[in-house]
UniProtKB/TrEMBL annotation, chain A:
Signal peptide: none annotated. It catalyses: UMP + diphosphate = 5-phospho-alpha-D-ribose 1-diphosphate + uracil. Keywords: Glycosyltransferase, Transcription, Transcription regulation, Transferase. GO terms for biological process: regulation of DNA-templated transcription. Residues 15-158 form the Phosphoribosyltransferase domain. It comes from Streptomyces luteolifulvus. GO terms for molecular function: uracil phosphoribosyltransferase activity. InterPro entries: PRTase-like (IPR029057), PRTase_dom (IPR000836), PyrR (IPR023050), PyrR_bifunctional (IPR050137). This is Bifunctional protein PyrR. A motif (PRPP-binding) lies at residues 106-118. Gene3D superfamilies: 3.40.50.2020. Pfam families: Pribosyltran. Regulates the transcription of the pyrimidine nucleotide (pyr) operon in response to exogenous pyrimidines. Also displays a weak uracil phosphoribosyltransferase activity which is not physiologically significant. Its EC number is 2.4.2.9.
Automatic annotation (TrEMBL), chain B:
This is Aspartate carbamoyltransferase. It catalyses: carbamoyl phosphate + L-aspartate = N-carbamoyl-L-aspartate + phosphate + H(+). It comes from Streptomyces luteolifulvus. Keywords: Pyrimidine biosynthesis, Transferase. Residues 3-147 form the Aspartate/ornithine carbamoyltransferase carbamoyl-P binding domain. Belongs to the aspartate/ornithine carbamoyltransferase superfamily. ATCase family.
């Protein structure tokens, strides 16, 4: 829904490794501030890269608060609204921390916020797992072009893009390096 | 993935591993407060059962309902089939009602293949057991159970069963479960040995990708999983062994025999078990027996198959309707 592969070489980095680390530190502080200490926060990353971002955020939150922060993953594949428009996709792992999400502040974490459809699917998936006190959204990059009334609570970087452009997040855990690449969609 | 699931032999290694991996995620839905996914909302699945079955039918029904499909159950008893309707007419009736998938169990080997390839219907066809031919979802759930037990739940993701030694014991002649398992386990890299009285070994078994032995005791020490098959009295119209007692003595699994297996080895049974015949109560109730696990795994596997066949837009393999003349 919101990410395209950038195979071409003219993609240019808009965030590099140290920028991403700084951005995540800032978001962690914002979460603590907004949640008044973050004592009931549960971080749920959306596979694939959202999970790594959630884990990094949790590590930073633990440094700040000196408490263990529950972190998990939420696969949204079977809740997508475009399931019927593509061949079946392989499923990713949904891992809900032991104490569940009931009555807690769930922060969804994803790499790129684009149409908002992934987050809509994530809200549906979350509804089948429990009833959080509140749900917030943290993204590394917000590239605009929303198709649903959804916004992020914590944004690493606002990146105004055109629909002809592509945004690709690479993280060390998956891609071997930390970077956000802005490219141009190859013309068909 | 193909559009239909007719035979375990049609699956490639990658297809089979994808189904097992998908089932591993589906299994986690069973632990949730709301055991339901919206994935097949608005799709209609018919369970077309021409042969008695409780386990398989209920398992399919549970899987379909967990994926939010609309389920229609059809059993030959009390339907127009008992008035003499043919498979073709039944199929066309279902087609007219607009079903998206047909799960079929039939006493005649090849009935699901006929249904899938005759051009009678457009729906995806899933074989839930046909005659003595195939029962692919059973083979998949058996492989899933083996992978979970022998490799590990998380460690198993993306893995096959390479090098695992599986022994299938009993009425191979009448067993679609044995046939499907031999095909699938071979695809997944396991080494399969069939153990049965010579009279219950099918003609042509030398062309199957497996070993055949008549001696259970010498095979058990080299086994990672043993699968006991039920002696299918209802399919037997001749004397295949002198007495049940003799069969049980030579090919049944009791505590002493189980002790000959390696520590980690598991005992499997597709059910229904006949206690005292192919398996003793001591073995059936032991920790190493996975019968109940296999039932739970069956729902996960069937959810995975339904999702992979019906969840997307287009079948991966183009399906051209060939009209029957």
């Amino acid at each position: 829904m919101d990410k395209q592969d950038t195979q071409h070489s003219d993609a240019r980095p808009v965030l590099e490794g140290p920028d991403i680390a700084r951005v995540l530190t800032r978001i962690a502080h914002e979460i603590v501030e907004r949640a008044k200490g973050a004592d009931d926060v549960v971080l749920l990353g959306i596979p694939t890269r959202g999970v790594f971002l959630a884990q990094r955020l949790a590590a930073k939150l633990e440094q700040i608060t000196d408490r263990k922060i529950p972190v998990g993953s939420l696969d949204i594949t079977m809740y997508r609204d475009d399931l019927r428009m593509q061949p079946p996709r392989a499923l990713a792992r949904t891992e809900i921390p032991g104490d569940g999400v009931d009555g807690r502040l769930v922060v969804l974490v994803d790499d790129v916020l684009f149409s908002g459809r992934t987050i809509r699917a994530a809200l549906d998936a979350l509804g089948d797992i429990g009833r959080p006190r509140a749900v917030q959204l943290a993204v590394l990059v917000d590239r605009g072009h929303r198709e649903l009334p959804i916004r992020a609570d914590y944004v690493g970087k606002n990146l105004p893009t055109s629909l002809r452009e592509t945004v690709k997040v690479q993280l060390a855990e998956e891609d071997g390096r930390d970077t956000v690449l802005l490219g141009v969609k190859p013309t068909q | 993935m193909q559009r239909h699931l007719i035979s375990a032999a049609d699956l490639t290694r990658d297809d089979a591993v994808l189904i097992l991996d998908t089932a591993e995620e589906m299994a986690r839905v069973a632990d949730r407060p709301i055991k339901k996914l919206p994935t097949l909302r608005g799709r209609t699945v018919v369970n077309l059962f021409f042969e008695d079955s409780t386990r398989t039918r209920i398992s399919f029904e549970a899987a379909e309902k967990r994926l939010s499909a609309d389920v229609i159950n059809f059993s030959a008893k009390g339907s127009s089939v008992s008035k003499g309707e043919s498979l073709k007419d039944t199929a066309q009736t279902l087609e007219a009602m607009g079903v998206d998938a047909v799960v079929i169990r039939h006493g005649a080997s090849g009935a699901p293949y006929r249904l899938a390839n005759s051009g009678w219907i457009d729906a995806a066809v899933i074989n839930a057991g046909d005659g003595t031919h195939q029962h692919p979802t059973q083979a998949l759930l058996d492989a899933f159970t083996m992978r979970r037990r022998l490799v590990g739940r998380d460690a198993g993701i993306g893995q096959d069963l390479a090098g695992r030694r599986i022994t299938i014991v009993g009425d191979v002649l009448h067993s679609r479960v044995a046939r499907s398992n031999v095909d699938l386990l071979h695809t997944l890299g396991a080494e399969v040995t069939l153990v049965a009285p010579p009279t219950l070994v099918p003609v042509g078994v030398e062309t199957w990708p497996c070993e055949v032995s008549y001696d259970l005791d010498s095979t058990l020490p080299k086994t990672d999983a043993v699968m006991m098959l039920r002696v299918q009295r209802e399919r037997m119209n001749a004397a295949f062994f002198p007495t049940e007692r003799e069969y049980s003595r030579r090919y049944g699994l009791d505590g002493d025999r189980m002790a000959k297996m390696p520590e980690h080895a598991i005992v499997m049974h597709p059910g229904p078990m006949v206690r005292g015949m192919e398996i003793t109560a001591e073995v059936a109730d032991s920790e190493r027996c996975t019968v109940v696990e296999q039932v739970a795994n069956g729902v996960s596997i069937r959810m995975a198959v339904l999702y992979l066949l019906l969840g997307g837009n287009e079948p991966a393999v183009a399906h051209t309707r060939t009209e029957e003349k």
